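Standup notes
- DV: blocked on the single-chain target, sequence here:
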Amino acid sequence: MDELKNHLKELRKRLLSLQEKLDLIEKRKKLIELEDQTIKKSFWDDKAAAQKIGGEIADLQNELSEIEKLEERLNSAFEIANLATSGQENSGSESPEVIDLREELREEVEKIEKDLQKFERNLFLSGKYDSCNCLISIHAGQGGVEAMDWAAMLKRMYLRFSENKGWKAKIIDETVGEEAGIKSTTLEFEGKYAYGLLKGEAGTHRLVRQSPFNADNLRQTSFASVEVLPVIAEETHIQIDPKDLQIQTFKSSGPGGQNVNKIESAVRIIHKPTNLTASFQIHRTQYQNKEEALKILKAKIWQLEEIKREGMLRRLKGEYKTASFGNQIRSYTLHPYKLIKDLRTNLEISDPQKVLDGDLDPLIEAQLKLK
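- DV (later): unblocked, structure below
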């Protein structure tokens, strides 16, 4: 029982530190200010602004409530631990009731720690756009059909991760491979801290396995590159001169029915000064696809400006490197042994399938802690 009580003391210290860093007093003040705005007669004159404030209120209420519940659970756990210790001292030995109580307490302490870790992780998500939705583009690198299949595997991994988080996901643009897999795809994820959690996935991902596309079943290495962008709100000021845009239309190859595939509703926009491109094809009209493509292009231009602002001599995807051997951020080995290794954090995971099924949390949390 002493071990559990010491663990609880450590958790209490972490919670106190967390409460201080979150500045709960300031958050409560902000909540009151926002709630005061909702009672004004003119509040709903601007529906979009009102909805945004409503979302901020809900987020603050939820955060404050969860912290209070966590504190209450910690206090209750301390009371149970003291009760069990008292019962043990009075009887002189561990009764079956005390043993059962200790096991229940151990389970509760583990749950409290997991919930506390979630809040601690959010402290690392303080970037300007970390709370935004995000776009992920995956491109097959060296490795032919094997690389295209690997790109498809990564697509599935991120979609499963999104599903586990309860996010909304949609495919914006995709080019399939001739034999298998995909040459490239762009996915949009809508969920809290989507960009903040996934931005560390940008880079080259390396796969080593026995190729199912090789008659001799030989071991093969393939690569795919991943780029991650925030979905930037409309009010963000990104200047784009229409004269700098080259707009191309083509027939959609994605879902949407025969009408979509018969007419040139898909749109690709090229920003001539930077040579950045963005395309969109899931809507039925050119206008809708153009608006979405412009949104993606703005995000790419913003990121390029951020890189220049930081004085970093690199291109949009980071310091430019081809998706090939020696440039990877993470290796996924399925043969001759099973291991995932992140080359930035040195974290190793011996169950690759679990990660490929969407369990990216350990990798993401290790990356966030590098900040």
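- Follow-up: DSSP finds ten helices and eleven strands in the chain.
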